[in-house]
Amino acid sequence: MFYQPQDIEEALAIRAELAAAVMPVCGGTDIVVALNRTGVGAEHFLDLSHVAGYSDVRAEGNGWWLGGGATFDRIATALSDDENGGVRMLSDAAMSIGGPAIRNRGTIAGNLGTASPAGDACVALLAVDAGVELGHATRGRRVVPIVEYFTGFRETALSADELITGVRIPSGWRTGWQKIGKRGATNISVVCCGVGLSPGGHVRIAFGSVAPTVMRAREAEGMIEDCLAGVARDAAKQGGGGSTALPEDVIEAVGASAMKAVSPIDDHRASATYRRAMCGVLVRRLLREW
Amino acid sequence: MGWLLKCTVNGNPVEIEVAQDETLLTVLRDRLGLTGTKGSCLEGECGSCTVIVDGRAVNSCLVLAAQVQGSQVETIEGLEKGDTLHRLQEAFLTTGAVQCGYCTPGLIMAAKAMLDANPSPTDEEILAGLEGNICRCTGYSAIREAMRVALQEGARE
Fold it and tell me: What is the spatial distance between Cα A241 and Cα A7, in angstroms, rounded to a whole number?
């Protein structure tokens, strides 16, 4: 059967009833690729592309709400303006995906549902402590912190009877995004890196394509947090504001730590050695721009 | 079980029963006989299957046909009005931007979607608008020239 609900509650009811027997599809930019390759479809499809409001991107409370069906094009446009509290990194990450036709269809819920280790948007979400909202017809909604969402290679906290209803993005973070691919468009990341600094001084360094899941380099994050806390203490003593510019020796050490944290593989896109080296390059590049 | 797809294709109402796992590309080519749209990589890398759905360029190989319910679909066949080609088609012809021609319908539809949204793009915006379309004859210089000519024609109209 092909289901095409017009509202999210109807969609959740179908998913709750059919669970793993139904394949949710929205943009189709992952699912239909697999269908074309294998010729094997699903017993049932649940088309979310007609669900009212599912593609909304809006400022909400102290941040942003991305409906699960928000396309990369919409995210890139809506979050590009840092001055209005957007999250520039998410916009840059969304723009780095595919070409215009892919960005017109591919969605944030699709990136999260596929949970590829090369999921660019997943890396960006990991670098700002996003919350993934999962919905169930009767159990209601639950928000899973992004760091707990990815549980293994292409495995997530999403249950077979739930749908990804949306993503919550906090505001006020300083962010940066870098990606290396084989060409400028329609390319899967060789390595990508997102960094985020929360208003409360928490640091996030996230990588894609260098481990079985998108991942964070926690030791490196701690090194920056310690450094910034030290700078803030000194500045407080002197009555000044405190800079977030990092000393070069700290940047070097953070890069070295990040390179140790990742566990890349050799494949047709790049060697493990190159990927590891680029993790250092990307994070140093981002930190120097802070 | 079939799905009764109702949409418009190039302005014409279409009602056709499709299978749930048929792509828009397959339905356009094999069911509606609109073979101007080409399939190639079938994974969203090459852009040869680009059509316009509700004003936006999409890879028709990655859209399930049933998903375009109620939508307006435009294909390369819809550009020509009577005996008059669209200015993009004319420009591709006059500049020799067609080599083997396989990428051409996708490129023209991607270009049309771009120009419909932004009638006077910069050179950079043109390149960005066409970045999802690959020409394996590598005739990119002629394609850029075609875009320049089409824009001049557009400005003249």
Answer: 49
Residue type, A105: R
What is the amino acid identity at position A215? M
Choose among B1, B21, B132: nearest Cβ to A101. B132
- Segment A198-227 shows an average pLDDT of 96
**Domains of chain B by range and CATH?**
3-78 (3.10.20.30), 87-156 (1.10.150.120)
Task: Give which of A29, A26, A62, A36 is closest to A200, Cα–Cα.
Answer: A62
* Predicted TM-score of the model (pTM): 0.95
Classify each residue of A153-172 as buried b or exposed e, where b means 16 or more C-beta atoms within 10 Å of its C-beta. eeebbbeebbbbbbbbbbbe
Residue A282 is encoded by which pair of tokens?
Answer: 């990307």
Q: Tokens 């027997």 — which residue?
A: A21
Indicate if the pLDDT at residue A86 is higher than 70.
no
ipTM surpassing 0.90, yes or no?
Answer: yes
Give the span between the Cα atoms of A111 and A74, in whole angstroms: 14
Q: How far apart are CA A197 and CA B9, in angstroms?
A: 48
Nearest to A41 among B21, B47, B61 (CB): B21
Residue in chain B nearest A47 by alpha carbon: B67
Residue of A nearest to B19 (CA): A2
Q: Residue B14: which of B22, A215, B24 has the closest Cα?
A: B24
A contacts of B59 (beta carbons < 8 Å): 29, 101-102, 105
What is the model's pLDDT at position A235? 85
| Residue A34: Cβ within 10 Å count | 16
Residue A241: its pLDDT value, please? 63
Per-residue pLDDT tens over the stretch B16-50:
999 999 999 999 999 999 999 999 999 999 999 99
